[in-house]
Design goal:
This protein has six helices and four strands, in the order H-E-H-E-E-H-H-H-H-E. The protein is of the alpha+beta class and about 200 residues long. It folds into two domains: about 45 residues; about 150 residues, Tetrahydropterin Synthase, Chain A (2-Layer Sandwich), CATH 3.30.479. The protein has a four-stranded antiparallel beta sheet with strand order 1-4-3-2. The chain is elongated, with a radius of gyration of 30 Å.
Length: about 200
Amino acid sequence: MGEEEKIDLDEKGGKKGFPIVLILIVAILSAGITFAVVKFVLTPKAPVQETEKAESGKKVEKKAPEEKASETKAEDNSTNEAVDLAEDTGETARGVLSLNEFIVNLNDPIGRRYIKINMKLELAKKEYEDKIRSDELLIPQIRDVIFLIISSKSYDDLRTVSGKLTLKQEIIAKVNEVLSKKFGEDVVTNCFFTDFVIQ
């Protein structure tokens, strides 16, 4: 009798342990599948670096920070030389307004894409640069207008050169609307993207 009872207990114990093992296997598999979906399907891909020269349409490779720093110094020197040249020839010196980096979510159905842009605005006169910087409200108003324009764009709107040129024209027009209220004329003559990354 004792042997029969032991066999019955083993059979019952084996049957009770089977659903628990099955539940553990399903839980581990579902965790693995969830990880794989998040890692490979839902995570955005590496940033698409699309720094381009608008005039030529040629792509320019992203530079290392050291090269970027030396180019920035050279760019500042060339800006100063351009101002000196303008003064020598009697032309009106133009100002440059550098804006801090913009990181903005794009108008995407999935809502996972964003853009990082650095830009400089060319001003009709050098004196506008100081006047804009001295007014506490103008820079925030300019940035707000630019944020609204960029956030209304989708990836498809900005992935082509013509899309980027359209964005530049919209920025120039809207910023001029803001600045013409203060100065009575169009102030911004051009917009230069110094960094343009969509992810």
